[in-house]
Amino acid sequence: MAKRIDISGLNAYYGSFRAIEDISMAIEPRSVTAFIGPSGCGKSTFLRTLNRMHEVTPGGRVEGKVMLDDENLYGAGIDPVSVRREVGMVFQRPNPFPTMSVYDNVAAGLRLNGNYKKSELSDIVEKSLKGANLWNEVKDRLNKPGSGLSGGQQQRLCIARAIAVEPKVLLMDEPCSALDPISTLAIEDLIGELKERFTIVIVTHNMQQAARVSDRTAFFNLSAVGQPGKLIEIDDTERIFSNPSVQATEDYISGRFG
Amino acid sequence: MSQITDAPRRSSLQGATLPKWTPWAIAAGSVALGLGISAAAGLDSKIQWGLMAAVFFVIASYGVAARVEGPRQAKDRVATSLVWVAFLLAVVPLVSLIWVTVKRGVKVLDGYFLTHSMGLITDTEPGGGIYHAILGTLEQVAIATVISVPIGVLTAIYLVEYGRGRLAKAVTFFVDVMTGIPSIVAGLFVLSFWIIILDMGYSGFAGSMALTILMLPVIVRSTEEMLKLVPNELREASLALGVPKWRTIMKVVLPTSIGGITTGVMLAIARITGETAPVLLLVWGSSFINTNPFEDPQASLPMYIYLQYANSGGSGAAYDRAWAAALTLIAFVMILNLAARGIARWKAPKTGR
Ligand SMILES: Nc1ncnc2c1ncn2[C@@H]1O[C@H](COP(=O)(O)OP(=O)(O)OP(=O)(O)O)[C@@H](O)[C@H]1O
Ligand SMILES: [Mg+2]
């Protein structure tokens, strides 16, 4: 189910501004890859190129190759809509659909895509909510509005919504940055479980979190404001946090930079 | 710990405050003073004592508050009282308009009046009713709404969700221009095009076309604003689930903003319901019931009011009918407004458990 991602020579632009430059890396299936780096170095931009969400931004443009197993996401004739069904995404701020109930939010992806069997829907919703560790908290209020949940519950609702469509890859952009330590822990545990089934990429500003949840860590940096961000190195998380091969990585991780 | 045994002292956060009823007392005093002065000076206009009372109220609020509470609170009170005075100035004409319309309108407004047409009753005789005018107004407004809502909403969707570059700029420009078209010009346009060039007759539908021209820009503008209020995150959330853009618009963007869009449509309807000029030019008017809006002249409420007033040579019966029709029109617009609020509240994105 999970798929491998191979990126080579990737550049992403906003209009004429190049936000990330010449990134190449491989992301292993059934593992968690963490992206770390200073603000503005293009982590979110890079993440969004992996499911063709970057081009939704006005002026957004991508060059390079992203291979999902053996298909180039930017190849000719590739439909971005199908790409996004394979590569799901969870955003920094929880964004449940305000007009929909908890149940409808989880069912949204399937319903809006129209490819589901009616009889299976409630099973899928239950399975996804259980998968997102939210079932026990919401099983009595499935028909209540999703925006009535707490921030942490909303974020797990968004995760349930994303995994309900059974993507191969799950991208998470700072999924815990608005959450308290307990909700954060719940989501980190969840990531640990989800990696059995999905390829997971997570952006985080929290070093401990990267160290706790990820198998591989990629460090991004930019030489100056207004310059494009670059991949400095990617390695096993243990190695990045104990003995990185680039000095800049060590400076960033230990809090010495500038 | 505390050694203080004195009578409770005022803390530094607590200041002298005027009792709650002070503004009311000052207002009553100002009104009394205004009435007194105008009685003494022999002025008989309500506006004069009203304005005097307003000025006294603002000055007295400042004076009293400055003496008791200090200068900062006094300024605060002046600002508050100015807001109240402005509010009253805005509300007084509105209330008096409704008051006069109700007072004069109820004279002949009854079931008979609402369910009968003028028929053969001449404008100077008593009797008759507005059934034909209500019917005409409802049909003309309904046709205009059916035409302009889909076009207007789709235009707004294009502008907000797809529009980039030249075409979108041009559309925005024309919508702006259309917003400024006087209703008589819209009427003349349809008159010269539909009735003079194409040689079609006067009909409710001709009036509906002019009303559409007036309604369309209002709907485009209000829908555009509502769509812009939908957070981009929701669109992205939907797109990231692999939902195509058009379904995202249909199932996520529109439901989120449907309350506001409906309100805008209702307000646009309320606005064109009272239009007189284009109806006068294109629908022509009739004293008989004409249920077919596509053929032959019809009546409509605003035109009925105008004709009763203009053609009756000062007959009291006609004036009474004009006021009753005006009251009906106002009631209709108010009901639409209330319905708009109701729908906006009912459809608003839900929060809470
Ligand atoms: N919509 C946009 N239009 C133009 N430039 C943008 C846009 N979004 C981001 N950028 C620019 O692209 C660069 C990378 O931004 P990005 O959001 O990817 O950084 P980030 O690493 O995710 O930062 P953070 O850690 O603060 O989230 C920044 O210089 C930013 O100013
Ligand atoms: Mg970011």
From TrEMBL, chain A:
CDD domains attached to this UniProt entry: ABC_PstB_phosphate_transporter (cd03260)
A Pfam family annotated for this UniProt entry: ABC_tran
GO cellular component: membrane
Domain AAA+ ATPase, first and last residues per copy: 29-223
Designated name of the protein: Phosphate ABC transporter ATP-binding protein
InterPro entries, per database record: AAA+_ATPase, ABC_transporter-like_ATP-bd, ABC_transporter-like_CS, P-loop_NTPase, PstB-like
UniProt keyword ATP-binding present: yes
Gene Ontology BP annotations: phosphate ion transmembrane transport
Keywords associated with the record: ATP-binding, Nucleotide-binding, Translocase, Transport
Organism of origin: Streptomyces apricus
A molecular function GO annotation: ATP binding
Keyword Nucleotide-binding: yes
UniProtKB/TrEMBL annotation, chain B:
Keyword Nucleus: no
Keywords assigned: Cell membrane, Membrane, Phosphate transport, Transmembrane, Transmembrane helix, Transport
Transmembrane stretches, start-end: 21-41, 47-66, 78-102, 141-160, 172-196, 202-220, 252-272, 322-340
Pfam families linked: BPD_transp_1
Highest taxon, organism lineage: Bacteria
Localization (cell): Cell membrane
Residue ranges constituting the ABC transmembrane type-1 domain according to the UniProt record: 134-340
Record's keyword annotation contains Membrane: yes
Gene Ontology molecular functions: phosphate transmembrane transporter activity
Record-linked InterPro entries: MetI-like (IPR000515), MetI-like_sf (IPR035906), Phosphate_PstA (IPR005672), Phosphate_transprt_permease (IPR051408)
Membrane topology value: Multi-pass membrane protein
PANTHER family membership: PHOSPHATE TRANSPORT SYSTEM PERMEASE PROTEIN PSTA (PTHR42922:SF1)
Family per similarity comment: Belongs to the binding-protein-dependent transport system permease family. CysTW subfamily.
NCBIfam families: 3a0107s02c (TIGR00974)
The protein's role, per its UniProt record: Part of the binding-protein-dependent transport system for phosphate; probably responsible for the translocation of the substrate across the membrane.
Protein name in UniProt: Phosphate transport system permease protein PstA
